[in-house]
């Protein structure tokens, strides 16, 4: 049924192309259904839509367009799919070196997992979390960080203010809100200094913001912060484990979902094809890579703005779009898995979660395999620490990680059985993560360019999502949206 | 004498290269002194230093290295030299479409002009300036904007505070100052809201900042603002005409100085050569353009960080350098010259300078030819207005400019005899101006990467200058510095 639909739709598409005077090559494809055919005129292979980037956004867009009977190609510079998700191995277990968690409100990602039969399981949280903020060290259960009791009132008040402001953000176009100009003129840090007196509250908010954005409170527009929180159901949802954005994990890793989508797409996904330029004219786009060119009626670029700017566009992009790409840096992040012969912190009654302003590494979480006897932690250098440690030798980073963990879990932490890291912020094809984080004055001046198509080029990627921007779920949503928009134009 | 030195130095250089096992091709060059020779091994032409960008920084570095006997090539993507300076014509007069002014403290630029025999002349300032801020319109003489008298006290106080903070900045490494973290966590705007109550003072500072940086107070780090002002001798010096950064103009245009330097460099300047990649190894750099590759022992990149990031580097740049390039957007600017049959504003007793918060276009200045009877104005869309108008049709911009001028000079402004503009922020090879303007949290985390060489690649350009960063003078200084540093390594 689906095949029949696709085929007839493809025929219609080819007829339209022929009517437009385009090369009707690839008719043979009607029997074998290859996604890519040869265009006699340009030497470029021709499809309906050329998609740049095989992360969750690009793959989702591709499969949805395919399901609607369109021909696509997904061009990926890397030798793998998945974008900001990636498979790795630590102590024989396959783990996520990139995005990994899912929350109950991330319904599009959960639907994708259900479709592929990939189960989720809850993030381990039995026992006590540790916190060490502004000189106050405590163990606690649940979601509310146990600051110095004297600071708890103000902490609740500040979180409350953030939630109120966030809920009032004008979504999905935050720059249109009445308070937008004022909120976009300040950083989270300058707002925090005016709204929190307690050093403990300030330090806690800085750490939580850093963990969510991989950037510092001094670098982030308050408006962007509030809009981002709003797109994820509030700041509390972003920082929470149970019920929040760190609620659950995927059995075997979330990267599998990208791999499964790519498998279904088959030859339509082209790896090791780095897009160098995109030229467009009245009838389509020509996307040139190091391994050849593709021609499509439309193009979809899923790379984050800072990396999309490294493609050469003809004609040149409008000032607003190019200006946006100059002002959307990626956060800085290094992700590390540390495996031990057993999860010894559990024996101490600990969940494994530590939130400290006395370490460079952190936060970290229990990430032990569900079966077997070994134990594992997963954690991050985020923001400033990631920036400082990314250019250090791996041994120095490893030493810092283990010593930081040992401060809280004891010397057993110094003897892992395995260790793996991904320095996203130094990886040439990513140059950061988890997401693009604009400073002040960007959204209000350049925000509309995030989504606004430029002729036949459309933009996707988690940064463009109306819900859960910055998360895998947002990437899926952005892929669905762009497939719908472009599909309607074909 | 200079030729002899150059030759013997070149011989020594070639011997060293041969000793390093490099192809000693280009020996023929010893008799004809071409700047560029052919390296047998790679097919790349070989020089001592490959310089990317033929603006004032690159040209200055090239001539200084040449004078020291080194061989250089300057690769320029555009079909002209001059970078952010450029020649244009309005009503038969040659004018600067980019940088144009010089102040008395800009000694390196003045020295260059003297060397080439290009005279300067004072910016016309006879008569009264017009100001229209926060609903108060006034005419005044001299350098201090005549705000509503009730606001003048606070204006002086705020300027005083800025000068005090600016003078206390830790230069040339502002991120090392005791107040750096705090100052880098806020925008000029959030500082202004706390330090100025009067709407007139706020509006005036916003306009002046916009005119200096081509960016909005909401987009600029307070620390960067203070450091930039410090590098130019204080904020008052930056905004002043007489004695300040807008003191004088060059007879025939400042662009001539770039043209003269390029003429002296001859075949060592290669136009229409867009640098696509830079690869380095233990002995040198290979710089590949759309028209061939060059090999040098060192490379100098003068492009501003946001554009330098669009080059492909092998090995990949360190995280801190790449991170900097994601966080140094160029300001937004459109420059316009409007010629009239006579300078009719002079007949009204006006200098031609108008500073208004009720126009999109502005400020503008008298730029009438020194000889003859025609009159001319030069002005800008800066920051927000430039961003908003860059993607509009030229006719709409022209209409806006003329109507804005007519509000102050009368309907005679609606009938120019000629009109020319340069939309820097839309030009693919520039994408903004006058200078790169980081938001909060950038300098303190990424600042050192502005200058720090990456292996054999050194960075220049006005952004890297210790004095007059953002000005042509700073570009010249950065070229001198990099030539000295790289020269000492050869």
UniProtKB/TrEMBL annotation, chains A, B:
Needed co-factor(s): FAD
Signal peptide (from-to): none
Annotated residues for binding of FAD: 76-77, 275, 463
Pfam families membership: Amino_oxidase (PF01593)
GO MF terms, alphabetically ordered: oxidoreductase activity
Domain Amine oxidase: 56-486
Annotated substrate binding sites: 380
InterPro entries attached to this UniProt entry: Amino_oxidase, FAD/NAD-bd_sf, Flavin_amine_oxidase, Flavin_MAO, TAT_signal
Keyword vocabulary terms for this entry: Oxidoreductase
Keyword Chaperone among UniProt keywords: no
Xref: PANTHER family: AMINE OXIDASE, AMINE OXIDASE [FLAVIN-CONTAINING] B
Assigned protein family: Belongs to the flavin monoamine oxidase family.
Protein name per its UniProtKB record: Amine oxidase domain-containing protein
